[in-house]
Amino acid sequence: MRTTATSDSVLLELDYILGGRFFKVHHWRRPFLAVCLAANGYLKPSAPRTSLIIHTCSQHDEWRTLCTGYQSSINSVFSVDSPEGKEYPQQRKTIQECASHCLSGSAQNLVLNKAAASFLDLGFSNAQVIQLLVLNQAGGVGFEESLTIVSELLLLGLNPGSILKILQNYPDVQRVTVKQLKDRAEYLRRLGLGEGSLQQVIAHFPCVLMVSRKHADAVVRCLKERCLFSAQQLAEIVRTCPGILKEQPDELEYKFQYAHFRLGVQQQEVVKSRLFGFSLSELKYRHSFLERLGRYQTPDKKGQTQICNPKLKELINVSEDLFLSKVALSNPEEFHVFKKLLNREEAEKMEEEEDGENGRLD
Predict the structure, then answer these.
(1) Is the model more confident about 68 or about 183?
(2) From CA 211, how far away is CA 170, in angstroms rounded?
(3) How far apart are CA 246 and CA 266, in angstroms?
(4) For the residues 224-249, what does the mean pLDDT come to?
(5) Spatial separation of the C-alpha atoms in residues 24 and 172, rounded to whole Å
């Protein structure tokens, strides 16, 4: 168990900056004010005792974002040309107002210290704790609320580094309740995600924790009942293309039907090629381009063709340059012109269909 002295080390350098270099009045020691000053370039990573904090501030944009609202107050407190550490009596009111924006009162300071100690006890480093506190302050998330979600993510098997990355890129995860978090993780397990796969999916696509049960059920029914994927195939789809749980069932069905009927591929090939992680519009471009070049042929009812079609993964699991050079044996200019022509053809077709419907109504 960490000692109180260790838990205070996260704020020690910030407190030192305010107490030892700028303000001689203990009441004005406010850690987040130092963060604001550092993020705006008023503190430099020269002194050894402050290098860690200041370096962290200067390297991350979120520190600058945090203090955007305090910019005018900070500018009136210190100017670039002012001697470092010099304090002017007429500026004291502005300093105090800026400090009250960052942390108001000793009670809130105690909450901050408690939160820092709790995050340290969970295994986060000093630098990671500072970033967590800044994220909470910027997002308006309470420390207790954040601590609860972070603890639950740790119980799911995620490490502190992955959790910090999730909260930086998907801050709304902290708005999910603990019950929802547990239920959605258990739902993923029932779909077939075992230990290791579950953590990988959550770390790389945290949005799965924000998908409602109702929507997820609709996606699963579509894949099982309309696309006829087995339970094992469904688990592999969710593992490799977790974003599928956020998509609309009708769109998923149409993508599968296009691959099944136009390209002649079966369920197992769809799974192996990770079709659901690829854009349908780009699939159409590449498939239609190969058809026009005579390099792809839709199989007949027996699944046979007069030419050897490329595998689905050769169409979608490669970059455009590799697709053109290795599969289509063409060049980017020709492909670009083809896409324009195809878009025009589809637009004209839609206009004709709309005119036909209007004629029937008349």
Answers:
(1) 183
(2) 13
(3) 23
(4) 96
(5) 39
Using alpha carbons only, give the angle 225, 229, 230 rounded to the nearest 5 degrees.
Answer: 105
Residue 360 has pLDDT above 80, yes or no: no
Q: Which amino acid is at 188?
A: L
Compute the distance between CA of residue 356 and CA of residue 326 in angstroms, rounded to an integer: 42
The residue to which tokens 């995050």 are assigned: 119
Whole-model pTM?
A: 0.70
Report residue 297 as tokens.
């042929």
Q: Is 41 helix (H, G, I), strand (E, B) or coil?
A: coil
Q: Which two tokens stand for residue 325?
A: 């050079």
DSSP state of 260: I
Q: Pick from 235, 245, 232: which is nearest to 196 by CA?
A: 235
How far apart CA 277 and CA 287 sit, in angstroms, is 16
CB 143 within 8 A of CB 119: no
pLDDT digits (tens, 9 = 90+) for 28-65: 334 444 544 444 444 444 433 334 444 444 444 444 44
- Residue in the block written with tokens 């909450």: 111
Q: Are 164 and 150 in contact (CB under 8 A)?
A: no
Q: Which two tokens stand for residue 129?
A: 């704790």
Please tell me the predicted confidence (pLDDT) of residue 215. 97
**Tokens 């195809």, residue?**
342
**Residue 261 C-alpha from the chain's centroid:** 34
Q: Which of 249, 240, 166 is nearest to 209 (CA)?
A: 166
- Side-chain-side CA neighbours of residue 309 (13 Å): 22
CB 132 within 8 A of CB 173: no
d(CA 194, CA 204): 16
Alpha carbon 283 to its chain's center: 25
Q: Which of 198, 188, 191 is nearest to 162 (CA)?
A: 198
The 8 Å CB, 24+ separation contacts for 2-7 are 2/117, 2/120, 2/121, 4/117, 6/120, 7/113, 7/116, 7/117, 7/120, 7/121
| Nearest alpha-carbon partner for 57 in 17, 97, 7, 94 | 17
Between CA 3 and CA 6 the distance in angstroms is 5
Separation CA 160–CA 177 (nearest Å)? 19
Write the pLDDT tens digit of every residue in 10-38: 444 444 444 433 333 233 334 444 544 44
Terminal C-alpha separation, the chain: 80
Which amino acid belongs to residue 100? Answer: S
